[in-house]
Amino acid sequence: MTLEGYPRDLTCKDGTTLTVRPVEARDKDALLAFYRELPEEDRLFLRDDVTSQLWADRFMASIDYETVIPLLAVTADQEIVANGTLYRTLHGWTRHVAEVRLAVARPYQRRGLGTAMLRELVRVATSHGVEKIVASVVDNQVGAIRAFEKRGFHREAVLKGHVKDIRGHKRDLVIMANDVSHIWEAMAAMVADYSPTLGG
Ligand SMILES: CC(C)(COP(=O)(O)OP(=O)(O)OC[C@H]1O[C@@H](n2cnc3c(N)ncnc32)[C@H](O)[C@@H]1OP(=O)(O)O)[C@@H](O)C(=O)NCCC(=O)NCCS
To answer: Is the minimum distance from the CB of 135 to ligand 1 under 6 angstroms?
Structure first.
């Protein structure tokens, strides 16, 4: 399995250079270690128990680069410092939509890595024909909401009392959305412009 365009370099705001590449089978233990290192505060509202071996086994088995497309940011010695994943379906009425989930290691937060990973994920999504990207964020995750807003997402809906944190406290879930169909349409127009069968 490959993902076109990767690996590629990514430079953080402070000049740190990282590599962005898809998750591979060999990453399972390191990915689990990455999530186990995240402070509880950052894991409080993640959808799954990303610290469990069961989650890691299921996640790795689900990767196909078509419906589950996970990207990593890694240091020169292959330490995982960010994981962002696109989830989509190929059929049904939301086949044009992808959901994004993202986490950045604490020491690497506030260096522009989250927004840089989102840029990569938007790029991958549009290259797969995705027209709309959504992210589910809990109402008090100010940092996450800002990071998504910086990449063109807006608050599209609020589901009241929809999530319980790992301590059992209920919070509102904010659905952030980014309509990227214009990128997709511009790419299609570019291809049409260069088509030898069009334009006389
Ligand atoms: C959300 C998250 C991915 C952001 O990653 P990041 O690398 O820190 O993001 P960036 O450095 O690109 O920050 C982008 C902007 O978001 C805002 N931001 C990020 N963290 C913030 C915080 N803790 N408080 C306030 N604003 C914050 C800032 O406006 C920042 O821009 P600035 O640094 O130029 O002011 C990271 O905080 C994280 O992994 N959180 C835990 C997991 C999570 O909540 N995921 C989202 C649900 S899918």
So the answer is: yes
5's CB contacts (< 8 A; 6+ apart) are: 123, 124, 127
| Domain span at 88 | 8-194
From the CA of 136, how far away is ligand 1's center (Å)?
14
Answer yes or no: is 43 within a domain. yes
Q: In this structure, what token pair is assigned to residue 188?
A: 């299609």
**pLDDT given for residue 46 in this prediction:** 80
Is 113 near ligand 1, meaning CB less than 6 Å away? yes
163 part of a folded domain: yes
User: If you measure from the C-alpha of residue 26 to the centroid of ligand 1, how many angstroms do you get, rounded to a whole number?
Assistant: 28
Give the pLDDT confidence score for residue 200 in this predicted structure. 42
Q: Is 102 in the pocket of ligand 1 (CB under 6 A)?
A: yes
* Residue 196 pLDDT exceeds 70: no
Q: What distance in Å separates the CA atoms of residue 53 and residue 169, rounded to the nearest whole number?
A: 25
CA–CA distance, 143 with 27 (Å, rounded to integer): 27
| Any domain includes 200 | no
The domain tally of the chain equals: 1
pLDDT confidence bin for 192, thresholds 50/70/90:
confident
Report pLDDT digits (tens) over 43-69: 877 888 899 999 999 999 999 999 999
Look at residue 197 in the predicted model and tell me its pLDDT: 55
Residue 144 tokens read as 């996450």
State whether the beta carbon of 101 lies less than 6 angstroms from ligand 1: yes
1 falls within a domain: no
CATH of residue 21:
3.40.630.30
